[in-house]
Design brief:
Helices cover 27% and strands 21% of the residues. It is of the alpha/beta class and 705 residues long. The strands form 13 sheets. A five-stranded parallel beta sheet has the order 8-7-6-14-15, with helices on one face. The protein has a four-stranded parallel beta sheet with strand order 2-1-3-4, with helices on both faces. It has a four-stranded parallel beta sheet with strand order 24-23-25-26, sandwiched between helices. Helix 1 crosses helix 5. It has 21 helices and 35 strands. Keywords: 4Fe-4S, Iron, Iron-sulfur, Metal-binding, Oxidoreductase. This is 4Fe-4S dicluster domain-containing protein. It holds the Pfam family FlpD. GO terms for molecular function: 4 iron, 4 sulfur cluster binding; metal ion binding; oxidoreductase activity.
């Protein structure tokens, strides 16, 4: 990469010190840092000349205004750069207008470096698609059905209502009787289970309507309410279409509009609308024929710990997904609907094994941006430029949701720009798709890199995915862990409300001012994302990346506690005397953290255990217990480098014929007690029991003599 950084004052010359920014940018791929007043106007020609002179292939510019960004991007494209090779940094709304000059200048310089670091890890774009038709089922809303009737093949499901009065034009709408009893499926293949008291044999003669009690029988479509009283009218149908006990049928749909219906997924589901407003019809129409969108996930089901052989294991992704994009078609399977994925990252931050990872921003990209933001000298990167301890003295990484939370912070900046007294701590921003992206690995990584604290800045009540405080449980667990690590509480969640910047500023001030300086130095950590050098897993899985960060923190703090609590992707295995050394646990373990030796020893590798629970739920003897948490004494660095520890010692039985160890004594005795009477004598004239032979020799004894 050959990057040019362009610093523009964007109409706010006092917001930052341009010379200070030029001094502070230090990424090795930045070939030149140039500054100008009104870069997107008079400065465009000079910027184009710099791009040509230095043969740049990327441009990073301080330009928060959309019009300025468009003109700078057009300049770069005219110089032969790719449309995606231009990135922008907000030095004004997010820095200069809400921080003092020294803080804003340093934050801008660091953010430019972090932007460049992120560009190095940017994933190539890919798309996913799913075919669908244009059949839309509208539940109980004639107005919605009418508005969609010119756009789609519309079925209006009455859901117990009567549309006999001509308030809406339903000539092009199929009106179906019945009430919704169940809704399943996904975009392109929804199924509604519908129950009615009148069958499809109904000819619409209205005899039951005329004879039945008022409000109990609807005229269009003809149907009888579940709580309708008994009476002779139930026997008046000339075609026997009345079924008082009710009949069920299934209606298929590509999309469903169900105003007031149940929420599917905490954050909604592709093709399903539980409300109806002016934005729904064009959205529905845009999805006729199917959906095509960027591919948000990299998935490797070979790494998945969801289950095996009918045993349920890890359920974190299905529990985390707010959009019904992850399902369990079987107890031991997980399926991802990538077209339904809304790019929130909830499944990826929850997955401990790396079976599913967010493509953009990837975990490695987040790590590099964090490291770049924290690559600083004591007292601030520009302390020598401004003198004394000026600049950012307490570095706090802020994972900021790029949706409403980012908009709220920008609105604070604009209000400050027009004269309101608004300021807050100069937190160092890392943009994420949603705060759901942040998990058990991202927080320790930032602390390992020297951050004094981690602020998770989300959308509050406006969150499009997981509700007002999706990270409450994570924050609680991380603070338990950092307290055990003798760092104290260093993580907090903030939801800036657009109309109350003072509350946000006060809460953030209290958090930052209460942090002690980190004992870990900044500028010295570059994550590899691996738990061990020879790990068979790809780097930057949640578990391995977190383990690397925790080891760095432990080296700096050396706490008194052995077990670090609050860590959900680390498991501590205990085995009772009920163990019969069956191979179930070692066979089920998705990370190969369990092995059985030939001499009857069950061994456990704590550094590789991701706490999926498969071994515990699958153990036929119920001998295994897994508890969450990192146990320092069980890590190889505290066991003279030995990765494996014995957790149970039993006795293996050797085949009396060939000498091969083939089962444990406990397993043999258990099977012998259960079926010994049934197979007595099948070993012929041998002096040994049939249970003393391995499978191969047993077959030869039985069938060959």
């Amino acid at each position: 990469m050959k990057v040019g950084a362009f610093v523009c004052d964007c109409g706010a010359p006092d917001a930052i010190d341009a010379e200070g920014v030029r001094e502070g940018v230090g990424d090795e791929d930045v070939e030149v840092v140039a500054s100008a007043s009104h870069l997107c106007g008079d400065g465009l020609g000079k910027a184009a000349a710099v791009v040509e002179e230095y043969d740049l292939d990327h441009v990073v510019a301080t330009a928060p205004d959309a019009g300025c960004q468009r003109r700078i991007q057009e300049m770069a494209e005219a110089q032969g750069l790719h449309p995606d090779a231009t990135a922008f940094v907000d030095h004004r709304e997010g820095s200069g207008w809400v921080h003092d000059t020294a803080e804003a200048t340093e934050k801008t310089a660091r953010t430019i470096d972090a932007t460049v670091a992120g560009l190095r890890e940017e994933a190539p774009s890919r798309t996913v698609s799913k075919e669908a038709g244009d059949h839309v089922v509208v539940v109980g809303d004639a107005a919605a059905a009418e508005s969609l009737s010119g756009r789609a093949d519309v079925t209006l499901l009455a859901n117990g209502l009567d549309f006999g009065e001509p308030e809406h034009d339903l000539d092009d709408v199929d009106v179906e009787r019945g009430r919704v009893r169940d809704l399943s499926g996904s975009f392109g293949e929804f199924e509604l289970t519908v129950e009615a008291r009148v069958t499809e044999d109904c000819i619409g003669c209205m005899e039951c309507v005329k004879q039945g009690p008022d409000e109990a029988v609807s005229s269009y479509p003809v149907d009888i309410a579940p709580d309708a009283p008994d009476g002779e009218y139930l026997d008046c149908c000339p075609v026997d279409a009345i079924e008082p006990e009710g009949v069920e049928r299934t209606i298929e749909a590509d999309q469903v509009v169900y105003p007031g219906g149940p929420t599917r997924g905490r954050g909604g589901q592709l093709g399903y609308f539980s409300h109806f407003d002016g934005g729904v019809p064009p959205t529905v129409e845009s999805q006729f024929g199917g959906a095509s969108k960027p591919q948000h996930l990299d998935i490797d089901m070979n790494l998945c710990a969801s289950g095996d052989s009918g045993v349920e294991g890890c359920t974190r992704c299905t529990e985390a997904c707010p959009h019904e994009a992850v399902s369990r078609p079987a107890v031991d399977e997980v399926a991802f609907d990538e077209t339904a994925c809304m790019d929130c990252g909830a499944c990826t931050s929850a997955c401990p094994t790396g079976a599913v990872e967010l493509r953009e921003p990837s975990n490695e990209r987040l790590a590099r941006e964090v490291e770049s933001l924290l690559d600083m000298e004591e007292g601030g990167r520009l302390s020598s430029f401004f003198g004394g301890d000026s600049g950012i003295e307490s570095p706090v990484i802020a994972f900021v949701c790029s949706e409403q939370a980012a908009d709220a912070l920008e609105s604070y900046g604009r209000r400050a720009g027009r004269g309101e007294d608004i300021s807050y701590q100069p937190i160092l921003p890392v943009r994420v798709n949603c705060t759901d992206t942040v998990g058990e690995a991202q927080v320790p990584d930032a602390l390992a890199a020297g951050a004094d604290g981690v602020a998770i800045v989300g959308c509050g009540d406006d969150c499009l995915h997981s509700g007002p405080d999706p990270k409450a449980e994570l924050v609680e667990r991380m603070n338990i862990a950092t307290n055990d690590l003798e760092l104290g509480a260093r993580t907090a969640f903030f939801a800036p409300a657009g109309d109350d910047p003072a509350s946000f500023a006060d809460e953030l001030d209290g958090f930052v001012e209460g942090l002690e300086p980190s004992p870990l130095p900044t500028g010295e950590h570059e994550a590899t994302g691996t738990g061990r050098p020879d790990s068979p897993r790809e780097p930057f899985t949640t578990h391995d990346w977190a383990l690397e960060s925790l080891r760095r923190i432990l080296a700096a703090t050396d706490p008194d506690r052995d077990v670090i609590r609050g860590l959900d992707t680390f498991g501590r295995m205990e085995v009772s005397d009920d163990c019969n050394l069956t191979p179930t646990c070692s066979t089920l373990c998705p990370t190969d953290a369990i092995q059985r030796t030939g001499d009857g020893e069950l061994q456990f590798n704590h550094a590789d255990c991701v706490n999926c629970g498969l071994c515990e739920s699958g153990c036929p003897e119920g001998a295994i217990t897994i508890e969450p948490g990192l146990e320092r004494s069980r890590l190889p660095e505290n066991r003279d480098g030995e990765e494996w520890e014995p957790v149970f010692e039993g006795e293996m039985i050797e085949c009396v014929r060939c000498g091969t160890p083939f089962t444990s004594r406990g397993s043999m005795e258990k099977v012998q007690d259960e079926v010994g009477d049934l197979v007595e004598g099948v070993a012929g004239d041998t002096e040994h029991s049939i249970f003393e032979y391995c499978d191969e020799c047993r077959a030869q004894i039985v069938f060959q003599g």
